[in-house]
Each structure stands twice: as C-alpha cells, then as structure tokens.
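Fold it.
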Amino acid sequence: MLVLRAFLIAVMLGGVSVAGSLPFVLWPQPAAAQSADTIVVEGNRRVEADTVRSYFKAGPGGRLDQPAIDDGLKALIETGLFQDVKISRGAAGRIVVSVVENAVIGRVAFEGNKKIKDEQLTAEIQSKTRGTFSRAVVQSDTLRIAEIYRRSGRYDVPVTPEIIEQPNNRVDLVFTVDEGVKTSVKSIDFVGNSFYSAARLRDVIKTHESNFLSFLGNNDIYDPDRVEADRDLIRRFYLKNGFADAQVVAALTEYDPAKKGFLVTFKIEEGAQYRVGTVDFHSSIPNFDSRSLRSYSRVNVGSLYNVEAVEKSTEEMQIEASRRGYAFAVVRPSGDRNFEAHTVSVVFNVDEGPRTYIERITVRGNTRTRDYVIRREFDLSEGDAYNRALVDRAERRLKNLDYFKSVKITTEPGSSSDRVVLIVDLEEKSTGDFSVSGGYSTTDGALAEVSISERNLLGRGLFAKASVSYGQYSRGISLSFVEPYLLDYRIALGMDTYWRQQLANSYTSYGVTTLGFSPRLGFALREDLSLQLRYSLYQQSITLASAYDNCNNNASNTSLAFNPTPAYIKNVLGGVDPTNATNSGVYGYGCYGDGESSLPVRKELANGATWTSALGYTLSYNTLDNTKNPTDGLLVDFRQDFAGVGGDVTYLKTAADAKYYAPLVSEIVSVIHLQGGVLNKIGNQDLRMLDHFQMGPNLVRGFASNGIGPRDITYASFGASGDALGGTKYWGASMELQMPFWFLPKEVGLKGAVYADAGSLWDYKGPTSWAATGEVNTKACPTCGLQYDDGNVVRSSVGVGLIWASPFGPLRFDYAVPLTKGKYDIVQEFRFGGGTSF
C-alpha cells in the first residue's frame, strides 16, 4: 500500500519520473522511527541539502512518520526546482532523497517574430533568463505566445520551442514563430433584424468587414472578445431606441478556408418598440417624498423608452437621496409593459437598502498612475455608506480618463457582514502622443503641425501639450497645461500660451500677429453641463506690405487693385481740381487714394501693437451620443468676453452656438445649426476693426473667408475690392441632412450631405475717418472718409457636401451656390479642408 500510495501521489503531481524505479522503496522498519536529521540528500548542486531537509517536517519528538515524508515529497515537487525526486532506504536505516535539479535558463530568445516585439513576448511568458527550466512551463508559454498572436488577428501561428543544452546544467530556450498572415472578418451578417438595416447595425459595432482600406486599421481583425462586446453594443442600441424586449441571442463565427477569413453572424430578436406610458415615483422610506425627485428624471411621457435614460435617472436620483441624508436609499426602476399599446409604465421605487459600509478600496494594476489620481474619481471613501450608483459613476469616470485599457470595479466581503471591499482592477495604456499632421484648405492653404502631448504626465493626471505649426498663410506655437483637480477639488485649471501669425492672402491685404496667454478654470456642474471661466491677455499687431502702405503715388506699382496715376492723384484726388476756379479741393482724398489698404487697417498699423485684457466665460450643455461622429443629441455653447480689465481696448462680446442632431429614417441624420452674436461698445472708446466679427463660410457656405458683411467700397467704382471690415451683429441658421452611401462599406467612412444656409453680418462700428497727415483731407472734404457697404442683407445658399472620415484625417468637400447676397460680398462656391495625424 505504501508503494501504491507514493506512486499515485507522483502521478497526480505530474513532476516525478517513474521510469526504471518507483519513487518509494518499501523498507521493513516503520518510517516513524526516523528523524529529519537522518535524511541524506543526493544529486543536489545548487540547492543546499538543508534546504531539501527543511521540507520534511518532523512530528512530536523529532520523529518522521509516513504522512510527513509524503508531504515533504509533495512540497519538493511543487517547488519546480527539480526534474526528478526519489526517496529510498539507505544504510543504517537512513532516508535517502535523490534529486535531479532542473536546468537553469541561460537566455530566452525569439525567432521569426516581426509583428510583435521581443519585449512584449518576454513580458507575457513565465520562462525567464536565469530562472529554472520547466518543460511544463515551456509548453504553457508556447500556448501563451500563440494566444497573443490570436489576439492580434493571426489564428494559424505555429510556435516551436527549441531547447539547446549548455554546460553546467544550463539551457538556452528559443521560441520559433511562423507569423503567417492576419485572419480578418470577411462578412458581418444579421439575422432577425427588421426595423434596422444591416448597414445601420454595422455602424453600431466595433468589428468591421475587411476592405481595401483595412491595412490602415485593425478593426477588421477577428477578435472573439470584441465580437462578444459587439453583442452588448447591439443590445444596448436596441434598448436605447425603445426595444425593451430586444436580445442578441448569439454571435456565430465560422472560419471559411476559401475566403481565408471569418464569417460573423449576429442572431437578433427585436421585439416591439415601446414608448413611455407613465412615469411614477414610490417611496417606502418614511418622511421621504419620492415625487421631489421628478426633476432628476430624464424619462418623459410619450418619448421612446430609453434604458440609458432610465439608468442615468436612477443614478442621479440615488445620489440626490444620499445628499439629503438617506445614505442607504436605493432607487430601483421597474417597468410594466402594455403589449397591446406598446407602452411601458416606468416606476422609480425608493427603498431602504442594506446598511453596508466600505471597509477598504483596493487599487490593482496601476504601475504608473498614482493611487490618488484614481481615488479622487470616487465620490466616496473608506467608512462611507456603500452606494452602487456612486461606484458606477466612479467606474465611468475612470474609463473617461483614457488612461487605462480596461477598468473594472468589483466588491468582496469585508471583515463583517456589513462591510464590503471595493476592488479596482486596471490595465494601463500609453498616454503620450507624438503627431505630425498636415492639411490643406482653400482658406489657409497648406499647413503642417508637429505636436507632442501627455495626458497623464508623471502619473499625476496632468495634461501637457506643445505644438508648432507652419503653413502657407498661418504659423504658430502653442503650449498648454491642465491640472484637472485644483487643490483636490473637481476644478480644472488650464493655461495656454500661444503665438500666432496670420499672413496676408487673397482675402485680406494685411497680416495679424497675436501673442498671448490665457488661464482658465473649468467646472462640471452636471454630467451634461459645464462652466469655464477664463482670463485672456494678448497683444495684436498688424503687418502690411509696403505696396499697400507706401503713399508714394507710384504709377508703375501694378500690385494694387486701384493705382491711379500721379497726375490723377494730384489734380483730382489731392484736393486741387483744375476745373474748379476756387481750387477748394472738393475731392480731398489725398494719399488715401493711392489704392492702399482700407483706412481702419492703416490706422491700426499706425497705432502699433495693442494689448487686450479680457475676462470671459463659456456655459456648455452637451447631450451628444458621440463627440466625433454625433447622430443624436444637443450641443449648446454660450460665451461672453468683457475686455477692459486693463489693456488698450474695451468691449463686451456675446456669442451663442447650438447644434441639434436627430436620427431620421434609413440612417439619415438631420443637423440644425443656429448661431448669433453681438459686440457692444463700452464707454467712449471706439471699437477696433480687429475686434469685429468676421464671417464667411463659417456662417453661410458658398462665400469666401471674410466674404460676408460690411466692406470698404471707397474705390469700388474703379474696380478695387476693399478689405472686409466685419460687423458687430450676426446671426446664422443652417439645416443639413447627412446620409451614408449605402452602396459603399461603412468602413470607408464616406457620407454625403445636402444643406441650406442663411445668415447675415452687419453694423460696422469701427473708425471711418483719420486726421493723420496725408490721409483723408477732411477739411476740404468732410464727407470723403471711409465709404463702406453695411446693408443688413440676408445671405443664403444651398449646397451639397462630401464628408470623409478618412485614414488621413477628417476631410470635407462642399459646393454651395448663393441664392441671395450683398452687392459686394465675395463668392466662393467650392471649399474643402482637412488634415491628418500620424
């Protein structure tokens, strides 16, 4: 029985060689007669004999019984230090432990791997240089390497381990990899969907079908985890749009050898679409009025039943109840379906939950990010009442930080029944970015930018960015820094320092150089409402080519739009009219008649650099479903800036911008864009032309940059196109329909758009005269100052657009035809722009 028992132990452990002899030799005397001191160790080289003996624990009186010997054998095998362990009977009744030590790994190498670096593979396997060699571990490492390649989309990757014997019981371990090609998804199909098309559902999921642009991304690579996540995305999409019974029954995957790729099929049960019938509130907590939570409900009677709206309402109600002193209140929504009317009656039940407290918050997996950066995203701490809504909010905030590949918060029982331990499991990812970007637009010309940024600087959650741009008509340098938690409060402190230079182009005769900095504070008032306070201090100066500022009446200067001859300037515009006997200088334009830049531009140039010191704020309301490619929701920005806190200028500038996205039929999305602004004069100081609003295609497409609004027309009769002066008031309205090209794969990223725009810019209040020597001779001609067109004309246009979320960056092409315009507006029917980052 002793031999059989030892044999079974050895076989179960799988680490003892049984070839040639059994691990035990039966001795006639009872093992209890031996002591640990009588153990003889043979075959050991690196491991000390005393270390081997230490695994055999003597019982009372220093005697070894049979269970102690069995346990010692098991413990030695489990160390992984030995290839073989045998126990036998020696002379004088001694116990002999014969060991064969595992070899030591001299080096671990990889061959054939190009797509995955040595460093990544080394970090994933258990066999390490200078570690103990184990064939079982090597086999496990082989499977692990193959799994890593499967995660990257390569499913047929043979991995062959090679063991090279070296002197002194050492081995070299080499893993040879045959990477092959990526295994992509060749088709994605849906079964059971009738309300939403397959094209619309493909837009919801992360996995894409392989196409001619797939080499620029990896979403077409088959990943079972991503496919499983796509099941939940589809289900959440249906639940968000009123399908309360929707289920994704299965995600079937099949490898097609002919296509050399996977075929993915999602089986869906849609059910009926429901609307909200009634919304009610019940409370089982004494003295708690549940109806007072109605203002926190995002569920409205008559609207589509939206599970996400129910969840957000539940979270906000539970947090509000906690704020009112009901720390253990739990809000549980329930829904009663009316299958005939297709409505859901929603009831928010407020009950007293279990009195559970947080004993400890344990953070795991953060090797770089500091603990306090993670813990500050929680609105609760050790000792507080456990609140599931606050825990879910913390998990969502941690995911939104974009510091981690994955975030998961779970609970474990604490030291008593009313205590829980929160476990925060994280997997960090790279947070630094280096990008080189380039682009071209019809307004700014060619532009290139180099930037470096870090979202989690020093692991402290700080943001820093430096960028340099150089283009045909614009250049700049900017430095940005953000501390998201000022003094441990949820207040973001930001600082921007910048230098920008806008050069003269075909739309403006002058350039503007701006140097400044702007500190700001950001507050999250709610999940969808934020406030930013800012201070801006910047210097602006105008640059002007000598041809537009020479005042030399040079008839050979052909670069000017209107260049009258010196005789014309002298006799007609210079204040002396040869046909006028009194020589009263009726015309009186003087040097200003030399075809130069507009009077406000030249006056700004003469005044030199100007400092602006302004306080401002922006109030933002954002319910967009996606910030990059929205299809539903509302984004509203209201901003005001008051200049006059020191500096050289004073004004109050107010602007509002609202965009509303709504999905229509067949994946068509409507976009309504409304905007408006007012610039008010403060005190007796005149407004500068540079402080006015300048509008063009940003207000009404089909017009050039700065092509709308008041314009210098002093010499329009001579064919001269004066500078845009800007206005103090503007409004704009746009209606756009965006639709995919159904005959193209979603992954191509092409959408079409049709739109109609309308708007106006008017009420110029800048300088109109200047008494400088050589300029307008106001004494001879008081009415001969700046002449400009300032009619409040409604500009309108219709057009089509092509939107491409390309691998080279977002690109947009527009062709718009103006329907109504001002007499001196500048039309530009075609416009495009875009760029990339790599």
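The radius of gyration is 38 Å.
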